[in-house]
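Posting for a labmate who doesn't have an account.
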Amino acid sequence: MLILQATKQIFKFLNKKYVKRIWIFLLVALLFSSCKVLNPERMLRTPSDYEYAKPEDARVIEEYRLAPNDQLYFRLYTNDGEKLIDPVNPLTQQHFRGDHNYLIEFDGFVKIPVLGRVKLSGMTLREAEKYLEGSFTEFYNNPFVQLKVTNNRVIVFPGGRGGTSRVVYLENTNTNLFEALAMAGGIADGRANRVKVIRGDLNNPQVFLIDLSTIEGVKDAEMVLQANDIIYVEPRERVPQRIMENIGPYLSLLSAALIIYSIFR
């Protein structure tokens, strides 16, 4: 009986003209308020007039290029790698003196025995191997170099809520955007037409906006990812749900106040 009376009081109160105006004003304010209010967890916002980099510029890079902080798995052989396939000396019985890991430092240089500091940043793996083979020619007969990046990774935010982001390590050097999204579990609950790829120096990055909602976007998704790229899928707008989340506490408070009012009355 008490709850019924309180409910009647609530409806009676809400039906008053000035209260209706207040609620209409609050709803309109929420609808047209900043996204920071309705979607406070939204990351990497860009202004409406932001100039995105052109996806065609990214597609020019057809291969992965070495970058600072890349960890290189390095092998060096002589005689054009004869020991790798020599049936007299099986690979499993060899001792690889030139088998080590080296870090490309912040300035793009890597310190390699015999050669010292050499700059490999910006080169493809093929270009770096050829460059090192030419440099080792002075010291070894027909040097044969093998390189592999062991810590290449990208960060993927697939658009869902509740900690769905992840760091994806790329075993394939020339991994494209589609492959990285697939390794991250696909687009969780985001907008396929608003996929941002953030690349380069975070103080002045390149930002590509990719539309994967249509088949025409496939050509843009073929862009080869580079070290430390950030893939961000914008989450879907949930305006009605967010409005209820915002005004829900106030409705509960109002209901409690009117119940208390009804009790004492």
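Reply:
Got it, the structure tokens are right above this. The longest strand covers residues 190-199.
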